[in-house]
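User: Can you predict the 3D structure for this chain?
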Amino acid sequence: MEYFDNVADFYAGKSIFITGGTGFLGKVLIEKLLYSCPKLEKIYLLMRGKKNATPEFRLQSMFEQPIFERLKKERIEDLKKVVPITGDIAEENLGLQEDDQNIILEKVAIVIHAAATIRFVEPLQIAMNVNFEGTKRVLNLSKKIKQLQTFVYISTAYTNSNRQVIEEIIYPPPASYKHVYEIIEKYGDDAEQTKKLLGDLPNTYVFTKALAENFVAENHLNIPTIIIRPSIVTGSKNEPTEGWIDNWAGATAITTMVSLGYLRVLFGKSSNIIDLIPVDFVSNFTIVAAAKCNRSKELRVYNCSSSGTNPLPIGNFFRSFIKEAVQKKKNVIPYPTVMFTKSHIIARIIIFLTQILPAFVFDCFLRLMGKEARTVKKQMKIVNSFYVLEYFTSNSWSIQSTQTQSLFASLTNCDREKFPCDSSTISWSEYIPVYFNGIISNLL
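Assistant: Here is the predicted structure, written as structure tokens:
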């Protein structure tokens, strides 16, 4: 077993293969690895070629984002350590060229698989090919890597959202993946059949991620493997800048709509616990866990979450966001507020009276002025997001993170300061303004 004084020493001279590196978490992870582990050798980044945009061009565009400013100011040469590898987890053998595959097999020591489709309403066939088969492809490649020391699979804490208490263990799969393919072959993406197959899981995203977890657990063989399950990933708390966020996924879109005044009702109870985790905490923990992975056949599962250590009632969260919007005069609709209900009928009435009807009246006014009327159309998008996220606002979970806390406690004081990832230390009253300001500055 390899011994080292601190986490950064573990990465010295090593190369990493990352999928999903152009995503929200992936970019924060790459920046932190380069900044805080300055002696690492290379980061090989799997990237798809897009129309009129090669992986090299996409990588340079990514480096233009503010997230990489401190690196460019202090050690710009380190950006050259990131090497784009053309490929796609949705293709056989990841779509790799032979030369690129050989580089990975010969030089990589750590694999971090974070790529996925996170669309909740993704058709089952697509979700299976990307989230399940993509994970199989990355794991199969990893088994051939000569000097592999750690395989990290980034999953989600909601793979087992049909349980109120979620522990750091592998639960039985929601279905046999062979049975899933039988259903797909027989019915295609028939909505009713997919709904039956999902059972008490809410969408194809968590369903396919649960299947992938089980495949990794059963097939990693002697590869030292860890599964990290983040909860709802939100804007950064500290690094590389406070409040950094670049997408509307998770809680961000619906929270913003409430704080701006566009949405005034949510399913559930205000006392339900919402489980948020800043993206830099997930990135830091991934780096730490990969370094500390025990070289044994035992698979470790870590829930990167806050509800078990630092619970935040959803009502408090939304009211704090609304307060920030009003104080900073960012709300678009006067007097933003949020009501909670467990009644679909009451929710529909409130939505109609406070959103659809005013939007219709405003559209009529726009038409009289000879302008384009799109207010109702915009409101319907907001309402659709309300229904997509209904499951997550109307339920409450306690996501346990005992092993995550133990791992953090085992770090040196230096590493705890360099890689903060203990959710019990988050002051929500201090963090929520940071998150709000990040949305305003980065997204709005």
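The longest helix spans residues 344-368. The longest strand covers residues 42-47.
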